[in-house]
Amino acid sequence: MLIGYARVSKSEGQDTSAQVAALKKAGAKRIFEDKASGARWDRPELQRLLDHLRPGDVLIVWKLDRLSRSLRDLIHIMEQVHAAGAAFRSLTEAIDTTTAAGRMLMQMLGSIAEFEREIIRERTRAGLAEARRHGRVGGRRHKLSPEARAEAVEDILSGRKTIARVARAYGVHPSTISRLIQKEPPKRPIRR
Predict the structure, then answer these.
(1) For 112-133, how does the pLDDT look when each residue is reduced to its tens digit (9 = 90+)?
(2) Contact predicate 98/89, CB 8 Å
(3) Environment class of residue 74 by beta-carbon count within 10 Å: exposed (0-12), middle (13-18) or buried (19+)?
(4) Is 111 a catalytic residue?
(5) What radius of gyration do the chain's Cα atoms show?
(6) Per the confidence metrics, is the pTM higher than 0.70?
C-alpha cells in the first residue's frame, strides 16, 4: 500500500493541499498530515504513520524536507521504515528505496550521518582535553568550598555533629555530606 505523509509548519497561510494532490497523483491510498515544524520529533501523525506501516508498504513524501529537517532524524525515521519492512519514496528528489539506486543513496546518507556524529565526538573530546589542559573540569561546581568540606568531614569523623546537622548548617542535602564521608573513610561509626 502506498501511504503518503504531508507536513507544513504552523505558520499562517500554509496548507498541505499541494502536497496532498501530488501524493494522490502518485497513488497514495492513505495520507497522514501534520502541522508542525520538521525539526520536532513529536509529530502525532508521523508517529501514527510509522506505527501503521506494514511489510510491503511504501511511505511517500512530496519532498524530503517534509519528513525531516535534520539528517540524523531522517536516518532514524528511515530505520523505522526499514524495520517495518516498508520502503520510502520522495517524489521531488526521485529517491526510491524500492530500487537498488535508492537503497544505495539511503546507505550513503547513513554513512554521512555516522561521519558527522564521529566528527562531533572528536571535536568534543578535543575541546574537553584543551579545557583540562587549562585547568577547567566539566560538571557542576561544588556546593561547598574545600575548607567547608574539610570542616564538615572533621565535624562528623570526630563525632561532634551528625550528618543531618552538618547538612543543615551548610544548607545542603545529607547525601552531599555522605558522599564527602565516603571519600574519607571513618575510623569510628558515624552518627546520622
Answers:
(1) 877 887 898 899 999 999 988 9
(2) yes
(3) buried
(4) no
(5) 28
(6) no
